[in-house]
Amino acid sequence: MKNKKNRFWAFVFSFCPGAAHMYMGFMKMGLSFLVAFMISIALVSLTGLDVLAVISVVIYIYAFFHANNIASLNDEKFYALEDEYLLGLDGIERTRFRLDRKSRSIAAAVLILIGISMLWNVGFGMLWEYVGYDNPVLRLIYYTMRDDVPRIVIAIAIIWFGFVLLRGKKLFLEDENMQEPVMRIEQNDQNVSNSENSQEEQNPSGAESK
Fold first, then answer.
1. DSSP letters along 135-168, please?
2. Residue that finishes a domain, picked among 80, 95, 110
3. Residue 70's CB: how many other CB atoms inside 10 A?
């Protein structure tokens, strides 16, 4: 439930993305900021690309000022503000939420990869208990699978997604190019029809004699 809180504590909680929103009763906004910030940090850790830390910084700063701006609103604007998820997810009805075939395949692949990763960590941990942690071959295999392989997979996924975007843009341009001649033909037909109607209106006597 939304409720105006102490400005000082709202300021203190705003140093943790989403916490100040939840403190003021905006649970959906707070959860969105918190999840987005945690996911951005996880991406930096998994990919090893430090440049992605910019995303975390942007989310952090935006959440900080967003929370303090809400806390500074007057009572009328504060209680009129709706609590909603980020990215327009608030309009989705949970009872009607269904995954299509493509989304199910992606979700299944992600779950399988997570399960394999968990089994890998458990199995390698048991193997190290018997062989020893100082084995150079096992250390090389373990750190390669833990660090390098996920980065390679993510890099391939990013490249694939880029090709998908390019392909979608190409198809969109082709559709536009196909629609332009049709629109021109329709416009020409409309112009011819209008000219014929205007001629008939200007020469009503000639039309009757015929």
1. -HHHHHHHHIIIIIHHHHHHHHHHHHHHHHHHHH
2. 95
3. 20
> What local confidence, expressed as pLDDT, does residue 207 receive?
47
Residues 123 and 147 in one domain: yes
pLDDT under 50: residue ranges of the chain? 92-93, 95, 207-210
The pTM of the full predicted model, rounded to 2 decimals, is 0.52
Contacts of 67 (CB under 8 A, 6+ apart): 10, 13, 14, 20, 21, 24
What is the 8-class DSSP label of residue 82?
Answer: P
Asked if 139 and 80 sit in the same domain, the reply is: no
Is 166 in the same domain as 116?
Answer: yes
Q: Tokens 């009129």 appear where?
A: 80
